């Protein structure tokens, strides 16, 4: 029986994914000096070229890949290389293997990667242009972000042949959920499912912001270590952040095998400088995706990200307009009658709608008035006492009240989220909005397939158990408050203070 690898899941965010010291073996890697002498070679170079790694080191490039091949790519390698892999040509080594050569300069050396391909010529891009053109045409017709995302999934499937392609979107806390998918009918669906932030640790997200695409061609691979292990220029392990062959974290490889995925590729979706999500591709068996196809996918991802950005901007604007409309109608209601508190009570329904809350409360002159689903009056009083003791500025908002105010652990059902603000400069007058726990509202599209982890494998590493972990993490959390809601609440407060001031002046005039 295969030995069960011991994986420490508590240190995932410490995995040195930029400096793994090895590569995936569907090609080989050489680090080269400016004169193209070999400084380091991946341990598998002998499998591909017949020249063992220890013999390659110190030799000119031609001694490893053959004079003709070296001559072919030498001018490309001598050119000013950037920090991103650049296609330097397709070569055939002296022993007859074909490779696409990618080169970039990083950490003081030239990193040259030789990806095995089954053709002697450069890739043919002709069939890829219509695919991208088609996507661009359809983008205009797709209205919502989800329609666009699902279109992108279909196109990436056509380019690559992956069995399942999905769009994975992050929320503000880094948890993710699947919002679009295209798949072969033999693959089960992940649509709508949620995963905790820890499934893609922080350092991986950082890297994916910089390096926009990655391929794991075969999750059962044996890594090929670099020889010698240290970069001779820096004296440290090589930084392979941008290397296409970079060996990936063993924890993640186990995760993939547990989800019956032997090949995966993911494309970063950057929106407004942030990692918005990933396009994630799965295949049951190993699958080679050559450079030109990866480039097409990267571009589809960029187009999708741009579209998302503009759609989100439009949606944001629309959202703010609607909130403002509600506010204006509320303010109109507030200036009607003579009793300020009574007026506020009259606009309670609008108050809820305004903040997409399920409960609201007003505390004025020691009175507590509630509407909708709120905690008990005593709990609200205690909460307001706590709020007054801790100066939170003009507005306090949280989507996990119990994390800051432990008594709220009893109140998560209707008060996981709180938006609260003082509405008087002098008195203890407060306006509070409550949101319920979010997890109740999310459906787990349970799927029996995800349970089928490889026997003997650490089963805690799979999307299925991830869902439970996610559930655990978001316990006591509400839907987040939209920035527009917070800003508008502040405006509302200013208006309320204005109304109160005007009223006080009127009273003073009457008294004169
Ligand atoms: C990387 N984790 C990743 C990646 C994805 C996921 C997409 C990027 C690499 C790739 O393209 O395959 C997660 N993949 C998912 C999720 C789905 C999916 C959620 O298909 C859902 C459908 N991962 C864990 C745990 C740890 C972990 C518990 O689940 C650590 C404790 C680590 N994941 C981990 C690491 C990487 C990773 C270290 C970086 C891999 C690398 O780039 O070297």
Automatic annotation (TrEMBL):
<feature type="domain" description="Phytochrome chromophore attachment site">
    <location>
        <begin position="144"/>
        <end position="302"/>
    </location>
</feature>
<comment type="similarity">
    <text>In the N-terminal section; belongs to the phytochrome family.</text>
</comment>
<dbReference type="GO" id="GO:0005886">
    <property type="term" value="C:plasma membrane"/>
</dbReference>
<dbReference type="GO" id="GO:0009881">
    <property type="term" value="F:photoreceptor activity"/>
</dbReference>
<dbReference type="GO" id="GO:0006355">
    <property type="term" value="P:regulation of DNA-templated transcription"/>
</dbReference>
<dbReference type="GO" id="GO:0030295">
    <property type="term" value="F:protein kinase activator activity"/>
</dbReference>
<protein>
    <recommendedName>
        <fullName>histidine kinase</fullName>
        <ecNumber>2.7.13.3</ecNumber>
    </recommendedName>
</protein>
<dbReference type="GO" id="GO:0000156">
    <property type="term" value="F:phosphorelay response regulator activity"/>
</dbReference>
<dbReference type="GO" id="GO:0009584">
    <property type="term" value="P:detection of visible light"/>
</dbReference>
<keyword id="KW-0597">Phosphoprotein</keyword>
<keyword id="KW-0157">Chromophore</keyword>
<keyword id="KW-0808">Transferase</keyword>
<keyword id="KW-0418">Kinase</keyword>
<keyword id="KW-0600">Photoreceptor protein</keyword>
<keyword id="KW-0716">Sensory transduction</keyword>
<dbReference type="GO" id="GO:0007234">
    <property type="term" value="P:osmosensory signaling via phosphorelay pathway"/>
</dbReference>
<keyword id="KW-0675">Receptor</keyword>
<dbReference type="GO" id="GO:0000155">
    <property type="term" value="F:phosphorelay sensor kinase activity"/>
</dbReference>
């Amino acid at each position: 029986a295969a030995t069960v690898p011991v994986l420490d899941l508590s240190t995932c965010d410490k995995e040195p994914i930029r400096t793994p010291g090895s590569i995936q073996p569907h090609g080989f890697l050489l680090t080269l000096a400016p004169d193209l002498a070999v400084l380091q070679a991946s341990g598998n170079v002998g499998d591909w070229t017949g020249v063992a790694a220890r013999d390659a080191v110190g030799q000119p490039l031609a001694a490893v890949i053959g004079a003709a091949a070296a001559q072919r790519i030498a001018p490309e390698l001598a050119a000013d290389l950037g920090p991103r892999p650049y296609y330097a040509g397709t070569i055939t080594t002296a022993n007859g293997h074909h490779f696409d050569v990618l080169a970039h300069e990083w950490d003081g050396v030239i990193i040259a990667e030789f990806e095995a391909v089954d053709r002697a010529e450069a890739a043919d891009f002709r069939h890829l242009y219509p695919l991208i053109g088609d996507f661009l045409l359809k983008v205009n017709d797709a209205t919502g972000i989800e329609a666009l995302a699902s279109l992108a999934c279909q196109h990436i499937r056509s380019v690559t042949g992956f069995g399942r392609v999905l769009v994975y979107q992050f929320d503000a806390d880094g948890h993710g959920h699947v919002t679009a998918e295209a798949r072969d009918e033999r693959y089960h669906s992940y649509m709508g499912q949620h995963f905790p932030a820890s499934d893609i640790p922080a350092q991986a997200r950082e890297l994916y912001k910089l390096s926009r695409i990655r391929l794991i061609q075969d999750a059962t691979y044996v890594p090929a270590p670099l020889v010698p292990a240290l970069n001779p220029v820096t004296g440290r392990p090589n930084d392979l952040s941008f290397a296409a062959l970079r060996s990936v974290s063993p924890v993640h490889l186990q995760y993939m095998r547990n989800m019956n995925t032997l090949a995966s590729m993911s494309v970063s979706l950057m929106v407004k400088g942030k990692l918005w999500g990933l396009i994630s591709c799965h295949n049951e068996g190993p699958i080679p995706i050559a450079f030109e196809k990866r480039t097409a996918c990267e571009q589809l991802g960029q187009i999708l990200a741009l579209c998302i950005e503009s759609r989100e901007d439009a949606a944001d604007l629309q959202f703010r307009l609607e909130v403002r409309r509600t506010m204006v109608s509320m303010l109109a209601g507030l200036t009607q009658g003579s009793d300020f508190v009574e007026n506020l009570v009259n606009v309670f329904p609008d108050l809820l709608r305004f903040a997409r809350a399920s409960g609201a409360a007003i505390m004025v002159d020691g009175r507590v008035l509630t509407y909708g689903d709120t905690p008990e009056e005593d709990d609200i009083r205690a909460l307001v006492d706590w709020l007054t003791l801790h100066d939170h500025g003009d507005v306090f908002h949280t989507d996990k009240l119990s994390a800051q105010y432990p008594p709220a652990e009893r109140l998560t059902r209707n008060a996981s989220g709180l938006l609260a603000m003082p509405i008087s400069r002098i008195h203890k007058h407060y306006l509070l909005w409550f949101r319920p726990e979010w997890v109740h509202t999310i459906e787990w599209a349970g799927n029996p397939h995800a349970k089928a982890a490889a026997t003997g494998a650490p089963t805690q590493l799979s999307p299925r158990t991830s869902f439970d972990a996610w559930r655990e993490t978001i316990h006591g959390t509400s839907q987040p408050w939209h920035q527009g809601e917070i800003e508008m609440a502040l405006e509302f407060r200013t208006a309320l203070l204005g109304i109160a001031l005007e009223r006080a002046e009127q009273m003073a005039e009457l008294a004169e």
